[in-house]
Amino acid sequence: MTDDGFQRALAELLTVPGTRRMLDDAADGFAARFALTADELGLLLGTNRSRLDLTARSIVGKRLDFVRRALPATMSALPARSHQGLFADFIGRCPPVEPAEHGARPIGEARRFADYLRDCGPAGVPLAADLAEYEVLRAEAQFGQPTSSDRLLGGHVRLGHFTFDVITLYDGWRRAGRVQAEPTPRPTWLAVVRASESSALACFRLGERAYAVLDRLGRGEFAPDSEVERAVLRLAQQEGWLTDAGC
Length: 247
Fold this sequence. Notes:
- The protein is mainly α.
- 57% of the residues lie in helices and 8% in strands.
- It has helices at residues 3-15, 19-25, 27-34, 38-45, 49-70, 72-77, 83-93, 105-119, 126-142, 166-176, 208-218, 227-238, and strands spanning 157-162, 188-194, 201-206.
- The chain has a three-stranded antiparallel beta sheet with strand order 1-2-3.
- The radius of gyration is 22 Å and the shape is globular.
């Protein structure tokens, strides 16, 4: 059996709209797409469709619950009347067919929703898109996994740049339970850092140039060639933001 192809086919049957119709109407093409054996195709064709639909609905419910729990400030920034339509479009456009990069499923789902708001969301949601990205960065910093050897910033550090002052907006939401309506755009660059001795997070405001230097560090593409860049590198070293490769 081609376990990888079978698992991918089953995952798409449960999460990607239209895949079940393809299985029924073009079984040979479906089998070729996933490199299925005849036995594997027979198993999928013989699956109880009512049970498959029930499982698919359960997965959708879990995905939306993950998003709501991981992105509470974002949810409060989106008009309640828009939630149903946004979620339906998100589910259709962004199936969870790839594993979550950072391991935890709620973070992976929140990352998909943040990317959806940024790339596919309707007009009028840039504030929610900024907040979603910020909440995801906080979660990724808090639960960050070890990074590859060529990445100089540690897994406990995440960088972000935003149209709005997300730090102030997020802090206001934590105090009042709601996000300020129609805030004035204020370009913001920041680093979200988890303290090494605890799970506490700190947010550091950055200038645009310092952000660019740290971003290059994060991509392993950095060799300081000016005093400003060397100063940013020293700051990152002093604050413990680097991996051993960056020290």
